[in-house]
Design brief:
Elements lengths: L1 E5 L6 H12 L2 E4 H8 L5 H8 L7 H25 L5 E4 L10 H9 L1 E6 L5 H10 L18 H23 L2 E4 H6 L4 H13 L1
Parallel strand pairs: 1-3, 1-4, 2-3, 4-5
Helix pairs in contact: 2-4, 4-5
Length: 204
């Protein structure tokens, strides 16, 4: 059974994907890894710096290229799942998968079990701080509007909850299972615990 993890940046997708790979023998495919390799960057920090913030000059061009490679990554993930239907596979998606054509989420929904690592409302402020303290590549779509005479960072902080709300609705729409990302991370659950929680959800 293929598992596909979706959710915002810093929600724990890579953490749990790698844990399943290490502890339970899942074959891992990381969409961020694919994008990073295509762009010839050695680290996620390099990729984040290159993509930049939506108020920067090169962001529109860079974000389009990022999404192009993300589309390729999801296509490769779909091919991997189709060609290995009897193997344990975990796909670590990017937070911006919801900005791709819906075809890709629909296809993943048919071929795999989609697990949404949800960030509860009370944790949104923490997520904003995480993003600005340790930026990861974020596609903003139309959710950032540059305002004159206003600090762009403050603009971003005001826009982030709107982006998060849009993504949460889209993630929820396609998820087979939803887990509280902070609850399972903070309680130091093992890969076994993670899989047990999925089974419990399946039995509801």
């Amino acid at each position: 059974m293929a598992l596909v993890l979706i959710g915002m940046s810093n929600s724990g997708k890579t953490y749990w994907s790698k844990k399943l790979e290490k502890e339970k023998g899942y074959q891992y495919f990381g969409c961020d890894d694919y994008i990073q390799k295509k762009l010839n960057f050695k680290s996620m920090d390099n990729l984040s710096f290159w993509l930049g913030f939506p108020y920067e000059k090169n962001y529109p061009k860079n974000s389009r290229l990022y999404l192009q490679y993300e589309k390729e990554a999801v296509e490769m993930a779909l091919k991997l799942i189709k060609n290995n239907q009897n193997k344990k596979i975990v796909i670590d998606t990017t937070g911006s998968i919801v900005h791709l054509p819906l075809y890709y989420l629909k296809k993943l929904s048919l071929l795999s079990k989609i697990i949404y690592l949800k960030i509860e409302k009370k944790a949104i402020k923490n997520m904003i701080n995480l993003y600005f303290n340790n930026p990861k590549p974020v596609i903003w779509g139309n959710f950032f509007k540059k305002e004159k005479n206003k600090d762009p960072i403050e603009n971003l902080k005001e826009s982030y909850p709107k982006l998060l709300s849009f993504r949460q609705k889209r993630y929820q729409k396609f998820a087979h299972i939803t887990l509280d990302s902070f609850q399972i991370r903070n309680n130091n659950f093992s890969a076994n615990d993670f899989l047990k929680m999925i089974n419990l959800k399946n039995n509801d």
